[in-house]
Amino acid sequence: QYGMRLKAQASYLNNYHFLPIARTCEVLGDFYGHAPAWAFVAEASQAVATGCEPALTEIHHQLRQAGVVHCDESGFRVEGQLHWLHSASTPWLTFFDVHRKRGQEAMQAIGILPALTGYVVHDHWTPYQTFDACTHVFCNAHHLRELQFITDQYQQPWAAEMAQLLCDIKAEVIAACSQTASLASDRLAQFESEYAAILQRGFQANPSPPIPSTSKRGRPKQSPPKNLLDRLDKHRSGVLAFMYNFAVPFDNNLAERDIRMVKLKQKISGAFRTHQGAKTFCAIRSYISTVRKQGHSVMAALHDALVGQPFIPLSLSG
Fold first, then answer.
1. pTM: predicted TM-score of the whole model, two decimal places
2. Which CATH number fits domain 67-138: 3.40.710.10, 3.30.420.10, 2.40.50.100, 3.90.550.10?
3. Spans of the chain below 70 pLDDT
4. What pLDDT is attached to residue 270?
5. How far apart, in Å, are the Cα atoms of 59 and each of 135, 147, 212?
6. Dihedral sign, CA of 110, 113, 114, 115?
C-alpha cells in the first residue's frame, strides 16, 4: 500500500500543477522507480476532497459573512456537455463549484450569494443583480475594455474621457487609502459632476433609437456605445463604489485570476468525464487556493486533509 505522503504528492501534481493522471503516474514513477496505477491518483484526489470537507464548510460559512465578495463564472466541459464553473472569493478565501446552469438557479443552489449583505463585485451578468440584500459593485476593468473598444471602433471622444476619469479616480484612491477610508466630500462631488457631464456628452452622441412604426416584441436594438452608456448611468453608484469606500475594489480581477487557474486545468488536461470528478476538483482547488492565500504549504495541507486534520482557514477581513 502507498502511504499518505505519496497520495498527497499525487493529488498535488494532479490538482495543483494540473498534470493529467497519466503524466502524474509517470512523474511519480520517475521519482520512485515505480509508477502507481491511474486509479491510485483518482482515489487520492477523492480522499483529499473528502478530508477537506470541514475546511470547505468553513470557507463557505466565512464567505457568506464577508463584507466584500468577488464572484465570477465561466464555461466548463463536463461529461461532454457545457456546465458552468462558479467562484466566490476574497483575498483570503476561495470557493468553486460546478453546476449545469449559469444563472440564478446555480447561484441559489451554491448558497453564497443569497446570504450576502455586503458588497458583491461582478460584471453586468443580469442574474447577479437579482440578489437585492447585497450592494452590487461592477468591474471597472470590463468598463475600460468596453470604453477602449468604443474609442477604437466608433471614435467617440466621451469614451476616452470616461476611461481617463475612472483611472484618475483610481489613482487618487490609491494615493489616499493609507490616510482615510473614502475620498473627501468635495472630491466626490467633483468626480460625480465630471462623470455626469461625460455621460451627457455620450448620450448626445448616441440618442435613443427611434420607436419603430410597426409593433415588434422587445426593445429596439441599440448600438454598443448606447448600451454601455445606459449601464454606466443606471449603475453609477456601483461603478464608482470604490471611491466612496476604499474597502471596495476597482475591479473584479481577483475573481478572474482565481477562475483562470481552474480553467487552465482544462487547457492542459481536457474536460472532465464525470460530474463527480469535476466536483472533486472544485473542492480541492477551493482548499488549495485558500491555503495559498493564507500563506500555508499546499503539500502539507493536502497531507493534513488525508490524515483527517485539514487546514481550517482563519477568519480574516477582506
1. 0.93
2. 3.30.420.10
3. 1, 212-218, 317-318
4. 76
5. 21, 36, 52
6. positive
